[in-house]
């Protein structure tokens, strides 16, 4: 009897918070997504799947999503480089601890401060980045980094890389450090070269971390928010808007809670589907090697 | 694995370059924060200040509402981390030491919560916060941050598994209740794990922007992040003052990183690598 009392009383608050602030809102999103609610009025009408149809037909939504894929793609391209850096750091080079601290530092900095800091760096008039280009004789590279529609997304992706690449490197490094050293020694005795060791020991050794990084990348890239929200508000026009920025603005700026909710539900489904697919793809590869 | 001696200088060059890329924005920010407006206008943004002036920092601190930001961020960090640690440990304790019918369901709910999107959920959560009368109060972020999550439970579970159940049993024989076992045996042994998890949580809270922005619009409730947002909105063009405000907001996590780096790293990697 005491057991049951302990279980119930210990779990009550954590589970209540989980239900109240995460799971119940998700269900409400499902409900709102089927209505034309504007967020304020007392009543709303059920409109079936109209919001979902509108979401799929809306070219702005696709534009936003394509921006998310840019973040996803470029971050994915950097993953092999991040593995490489982690391997180098793991080689016990001198000052390796110092470099690890430096590489990871951007991740723990305040995101708002970092976003505004880069807005200043990108400033077209007397901005530090343009001044730097001028100083090294690359005046022709000078751009309006945040107001040129064809460049703005790349400028923002750079900020995202600056902030988050270090996290991946540190995670990979932890994975590498968890590989027992005698595996490498045994392989050396068996006459395996560096490449063979990398493919047969290092890569399998970090497969768990790789899965986590890939999941973080999908989840992060699909939900990019604060960098564009703070630096460009999705502009100029909709050039740098992302799926989440678009959803938030649809709800809180244009009071279209129905459409915004359907977008949120779609986002949730995308996170599940893409994580699953990526996991399958990666697992399949891991087993064959 | 040994890197060949010949490629070593190249490797150092690579890491020196990366260090430069990481430090360049921060260095520019520090230099700009100490420049006078005239200095900033007349010289290259890459140059050192002609004279180091603390005027911008003073202005940013006072006009930027930074004292209030420090206070509210501090309250949120301490109270939320405290609650979050206790709730997480309680959940893990019950999940590890007891068998009950709904155990799978509880775990399942925490797993489902992992895929709930961060920002877009606010569309619905906003109504709940308002309905509970928590809008524009510290209570809203406090309760949101206090909730435990799968990663935290998972890490606590790893630690609890290592605590022998015999300890529990002998305490029972000595007349200890389950609550007593938790508070006197389990929780103290979880403290090292709590420290690492708590630091990561503290960094997350210090750096969060959207929850305080959405739920605490009042100026007296601004955190460091939202104080900075408001200040930038007011003085978009005076970069020396903005840089000073940015610098002030960067300092807390930088200090934390400088002094508690070991815990930051073990917290970040705890879930990724099995002990």
Structural class of chain B: mainly alpha
| CATH homologous superfamily descriptor of the domain at 76-227 and 252-272 in chain B | MetI-like
Order of helices and strands of chain B: HHHHHHHHHHHHH
- Strand tally of chain A: 0
What's the CATH architecture name of the domain at 76-227 and 252-272 in chain B?
A: Orthogonal Bundle
- Separation of the first and last Cα atoms of chain A: 52 Å
Looking at this protein, list some descriptive labels.
heterodimer; A: 289 residues; mainly alpha; 13 helices; 74% helix; 0% strand; globular; B: 275 residues; MetI-like fold
Describe the protein in words.
By secondary structure, chain A is mostly helical. Chain A is built from 13 helices and no strands. Chain A has helices at residues 2-32, 50-57, 59-90, 96-108, 111-121, 128-135, 152-177, 181-189, 194-205, 207-222, 226-231, 243-252, 257-288. In chain A, helix 10 (207-222) packs antiparallel against helix 13 (257-288) and helix 12 runs antiparallel to helix 13 (257-288). The relative contact order of chain A is 0.14. The mean pLDDT of chain A is 90. Chain B is mainly α. Chain B has a domain at 76-227 and 252-272: MetI-like fold, CATH 1.10.3720. Chain B has helices at 8-33, 37-42, 55-63, 66-97, 103-113, 122-131, 139-146, 150-162, 165-173, 178-207, 210-215, 224-234, 239-270. Chain B is globular and about 75 Å long. The chains are: A mainly alpha (289), B mainly alpha (275). At the A-B interface, helix 1, helix 3, helix 4, helix 5 and helix 6 of A face helix 1, helix 4, helix 5, helix 6 and helix 7 of B.
Briefly characterize the structure:
The complex is a heterodimer of chains A (289) and B (275). In chain A, 74% of the residues lie in helices and 0% in strands.
């Amino acid at each position: 009897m005491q057991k049951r009392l302990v279980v119930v009383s210990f779990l009550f608050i954590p589970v209540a918070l989980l239900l109240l602030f995460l799971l119940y809102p998700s269900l409400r999103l499902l409900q709102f997504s089927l209505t034309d609610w504007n967020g304020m009025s007392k009543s709303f009408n059920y409109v079936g799947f109209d919001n979902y149809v509108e979401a799929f037909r809306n070219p702005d939504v696709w534009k936003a999503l394509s921006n998310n894929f840019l973040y996803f793609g470029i971050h994915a391209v950097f993953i092999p480089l991040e593995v490489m850096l982690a391997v180098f750091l793991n080689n016990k080079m001198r000052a390796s601890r110092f470099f690890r601290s430096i590489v990871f530092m951007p991740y723990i900095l305040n995101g708002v401060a970092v976003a505004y800091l880069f807005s200043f760096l990108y400033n077209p008039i007397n901005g530090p980045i343009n001044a730097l280009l001028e100083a090294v004789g690359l005046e022709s590279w000078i751009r309006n980094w945040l107001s040129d529609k064809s460049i703005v997304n790349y400028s923002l992706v750079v900020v995202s890389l600056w902030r988050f690449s270090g996290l991946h490197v540190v995670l990979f490094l932890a994975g590498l450090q968890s590989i027992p050293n005698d595996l490498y020694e045994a392989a050396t005795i068996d006459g395996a070269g560096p490449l063979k060791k990398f493919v047969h020991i290092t890569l399998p050794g970090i497969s768990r971390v790789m899965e986590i990084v890939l999941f973080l990348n999908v989840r992060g890239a699909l939900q990019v928010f604060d960098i564009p929200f703070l630096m460009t508000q999705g502009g100029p026009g909709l050039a740098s808007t992302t799926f989440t920025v678009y959803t938030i603005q649809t709800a809180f700026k244009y009071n279209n809670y129905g459409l915004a909710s359907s977008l949120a539900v779609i986002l949730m489904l995308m996170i599940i589907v893409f994580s699953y697919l990526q996991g399958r793809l990666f697992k399949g590869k891991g087993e064959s090697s | 694995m040994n890197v060949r001696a010949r490629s070593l200088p190249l490797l150092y060059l690579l890491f020196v370059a990366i260090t430069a890329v990481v430090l360049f924005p921060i260095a520019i920010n520090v230099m700009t924060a100490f420049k006078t407006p005239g200095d900033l206008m007349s010289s290259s943004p890459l140059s050192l200040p002609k004279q180091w002036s603390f005027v911008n920092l003073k202005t940013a601190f006072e006009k930027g509402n930074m004292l209030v930001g420090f206070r509210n961020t501090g309250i949120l960090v301490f109270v939320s981390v405290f609650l979050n640690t206790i709730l997480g440990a309680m959940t893990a304790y019950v999940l590890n030491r007891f068998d009950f019918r709904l155990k799978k369901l509880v775990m399942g709910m925490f797993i489902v919560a992992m895929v709930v999107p961060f920002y877009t959920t606010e569309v619905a959560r906003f109504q709940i916060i308002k309905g509970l009368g928590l809008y524009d109060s510290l209570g809203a972020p406090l309760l949101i941050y206090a909730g435990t999550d799968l990663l935290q439970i998972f890490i606590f579970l790893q630690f609890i598994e290592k605590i022998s159940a015999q300890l529990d049993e002998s305490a029972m024989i000595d007349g200890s209740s389950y609550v007593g076992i938790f508070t006197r045996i389990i929780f103290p042994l979880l403290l090292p794990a709590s420290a690492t998890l708590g630091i990561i949580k503290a960094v997350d809270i210090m750096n969060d922007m959207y929850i305080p922005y959405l739920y605490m619009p009042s100026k007296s409730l601004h955190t460091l992040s939202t104080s900075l947002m408001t200040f930038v909105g007011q003085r978009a063009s005076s970069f020396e003052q903005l840089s000073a405000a940015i610098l002030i907001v960067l300092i807390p996590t930088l200090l934390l990183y400088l002094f508690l780096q070991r815990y930051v790293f073990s917290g970040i990697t705890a879930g990724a690598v099995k002990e």
